[in-house]
Structures are given as C-alpha cells and as structure tokens.
Specification:
This protein is an alpha+beta fold and 231 residues long. The chain has seven helices and seven strands, in the order ααβββββββααααα. The strands form three sheets. It has a three-stranded antiparallel β-sheet. A two-stranded antiparallel sheet has the order 1-2. It has a two-stranded antiparallel ribbon with strand order 3-4.
C-alpha cells in the first residue's frame, strides 16, 4: 500500500512507466535500427521513407523502393526482416496510369504544372460504394440541434483547407457542399456568413490576393433569392 512516485527524468519531470506492449514496440524498433545500422542501409531506407506514412492499417509510400520488401515478416531484404506478421492480409493499390493515388480521404495527383497536388477524396463516389445510396448530411428539419447541422459547413471548410493544395479544388468542394446543403433547405445567409467568416479569418489561404475574391468564387450564383429576382 505504499505510494511510489513516478521516476524523474533528467529535467526532473515525471516519466510515465511503459506498458508491456509499449516496451515490446520499443524493443522491436531498437532491434530494427540496430539491424539497419549493422547492414549499412539505414540512410537509404530513411531517404526512401521520407514520404512514407501510416495511419492504422493504411500505408502511403511514394518513391519508396523498399516498401514491398519490408511489409511481410517472412521477407528479408538487405538483412532486414519485414514488419507485419503473415496472419495479416495486405492489399496494395498501385498508382493509377494518370498519376493519381489515394490515401484515406486524400487524393494526390500530378497537375499540368508537373507538380504534385492534393485534393479531397470521397470513396463513396467511386466503385463499389457509388452503387450504395447514402445520406451524407442531415436535413434541416431533422432532430439534430441547428448548431450541429450548420456546424457541418465550418468543419468541412477546415477539412477542405487542409486537404486542398489548390484554390480551384477548395472552391469546387465548397460549392458542392453549399449546393447539397441548400437542397436540404439550409439558409443561404447563414451558410454564406460561415464561408466568409472562415475565409476572412484566414486571409492568406492559397496565397489569394483578396479574401473577398475567394469568397465570391465560392458563393457566386448560389443564392436562391437571385433566381427569384431573375424570375
């Protein structure tokens, strides 16, 4: 029943004890680094893994010639054993012929300027999920708080700003979302206020000369009152 305080680090801050699983991972990576150093391939692997990332069970590897040799634990490459056990089924998706590859909700593609750009990827719009009817956003009359319903606009704006590397992609996805929400009877005034507030809060988004110009590009022609006046 005695209390034992956590050990202190060199700067006298408490250091949390590691769980058995964390200790196992620590030993694994320590042994892996030792093997890599002993075979002189650490620098090559580090350079190749510069644009290699993993989120749970999704791996993105760009220009990494070692990744296919180091996925399975039964494979050994340059004296280094792979990572994942044989009981795990790994499926790989190669880059498409048009230079596109997807990772989570991100699409990486090669633009006409020969640079790589990113945009939003929605797997529900591609086979086989495009055959399934789904409801992406709640109707304005649904039993959800109005704050939560209109919060969809602000949260997706943050998502688009983070995933889209080009202004044109940001405008395209913003207008598509606005169109969807307007069809579900959301108020244009409230949506447009959210869009303008977000853009003017980040005036240097996509290096635009004017936040007003970006806001107009996102909102132009979507106000239902304009159609009424024209009619």
């Amino acid at each position: 029943g005695l209390y034992h305080p956590p050990p202190l680090s060199a700067n006298h801050e408490p250091r949390m004890a590691l769980t058995p699983a964390q200790n196992g991972r620590k030993r694994y990576w320590s042994q892996l680094n030792s093997n890599l150093n002993s075979h002189g391939v650490l620098d090559m692997l580090a350079l190749s893994a510069f644009v290699t990332t993993r989120y749970i069970d999704d791996i993105l590897a760009m220009a990494n010639k070692f990744i296919e040799h180091l996925l399975s634990a039964r494979d050994v490459y340059e004296g280094v054993r792979g990572i994942y056990r044989e009981c795990l089924v790994l499926t790989t998706e190669q880059e498409k012929t048009n230079g596109e590859v997807t990772y989570l909700d991100l699409e990486i593609y090669k633009h006409t300027d020969l640079n790589h750009h990113t945009t939003v990827y929605n797997k529900k719009l591609h086979p086989p999920l495009d055959k399934i009817k789904h409801i992406s956003y709640p109707h304005i009359e649904s039993f959800i708080s109005r704050t939560a319903k209109y919060g969809v606009m602000s949260s997706q704006l943050v998502r688009y700003a983070r995933l889209c590397s080009r202004k044109e992609s940001f405008v395209f996805h913003t207008r598509a979302l606005l169109t969807t929400l307007l069809e579900k009877q959301y108020r244009f005034e409230k949506l447009s206020h959210t869009v303008r507030a977000f853009i003017f809060k980040h005036p240097y988004l996509f290096a635009c000369r004017s936040p007003e110009g970006l806001a107009i590009a996102c909102l132009k022609g979507l106000d239902p009152k304009e159609y009424t006046r024209r009619g």
